[in-house]
Specification:
about 325 residues; Rossmann fold; N-(1-d-carboxylethyl)-l-norvaline Dehydrogenase, domain 2; 2 domains; six-stranded parallel sheet; three-stranded mixed sheet
């Protein structure tokens, strides 16, 4: 418990690939109660962290003043906070003044609605999605995009510090989730564009690793070429820790924002269509989003990896 703040108790919900390393960092500084739908995960992590596990969200811990959600999408967030006709959600049972921080990738419209409901109940609501992946979740170097009213955002700030130092307030409720989706849209566009460039380069006699070096020392560089290609694609590991289906979800959110805003986005709109094509072509579960490179390999009869092809390749290789 050394180093923890003397505030109330935080309920941390969602201990998946991102949630677990985030909870590890958070529990070092705050009294934390853990919940995940996987009971074994909850109990294992609680034992490691000297935190308190709970089997159900029905009984709230005493002194609860903060809830952090790291859940996969808006439907799950809504089910936890609102519930259904037979099972009331968490929001109706939280003490007035409680702070809820949604750190997953949710739909801005859903977030705005939940923030309105929370406000009517006297609960503060902030959306604070993160970027940086599993590795930076473990080191506390995530970028955090924060949306909400000024008072709620101010209350959230001390709770966000354990996760990352690059914390940007981007606007009102839902703005954080909008920023996250738009960031991922550009990230995926860079990833796909680089795959196309490397295929063309190889056809011109330039090996992928050489072209990546050229890009990273020139104006074409991006996080995709600087990190994802050297670490996850050229190596053939495809292990960034972020699933293609989750990337597709974020791209669909970004596309919806474009339509709502009446903004023409011909380049980035094509990214969503390309990832949809790649997902169908690869036709496997649990795909890492960097495996879009395998799609480009297949349709171009190219090889964008420096390492030998594994004998346990996924279907349609």
């Amino acid at each position: 418990m050394t180093g923890r703040t003397p505030s109330g108790v935080t309920l941390f919900v969602g201990l998946g690939k991102m949630g677990e390393p985030m909870a590890r960092r958070y529990a070092d500084t705050h009294a934390t109660v853990l919940f995940d739908i996987d009971k074994d995960t909850t109990e294992r992590l609680a034992a490691d962290l000297d935190a308190v596990p709970v089997d159900t969200l029905s009984d709230l811990p005493t002194r609860l003043d903060t809830v952090i959600l790291m859940l996969p999408d808006s439907r799950v967030v809504e089910s936890v906070l609102i519930g259904d006709k037979s099972h009331g959600g968490l929001l109706n049972r939280l003490p007035r003044g409680t702070l809820v921080i949604d750190m997953g990738s949710s739909e801005p419209a859903s977030t705005r609605n939940l923030a309105d409901v929370a406000s009517q109940l006297g609960v503060h609501y902030v959306d604070a999605p993160v970027s940086g992946g599993v590795a930076k979740a473990g080191t506390g170097e995530l970028s955090i995009m924060v949306g909400g009213d000024p008072i709620s955002v101010g209350l959230a700030q001390p709770h966000l510090v354990p996760f990352g130092s690059n914390i940007v307030t981007v606007g009102p409720s839902g703005a954080g989730h909008a920023a996250k989706a738009l960031n991922n849209l550009l990230s995926a566009t860079n990833l796909a564009a680089a795959a196309e460039i490397l295929c063309v380069a190889q056809s011109a006699g330039i090996e992928p690793d050489v072209m990546v070096k050229v890009l990273n020392s020139s104006t074409g560089r991006s996080q995709a070429t600087e990190v994802k290609y050297p670490q996850h694609i050229l190596t053939g590991t495809f292990a960034s820790g972020f699933e293609m289906d989750l990337m597709l979800k974020d791209l669909a959110i970004a596309a919806g924002l474009s339509r709502e805003g009446g903004v023409s986005t011909p380049i980035t709109s094509r990214t969503l269509a390309t990832l949809d094509d790649a997902r169908r072509w690869l036709d496997a579960s649990g795909l890492d989003h960097t495996e879009i490179a395998r799609f480009y390999e297949g349709i171009n009869h190219a090889l964008l990896r420096s390492s030998p092809v594994s004998s346990t390749e996924r279907p349609n290789e």
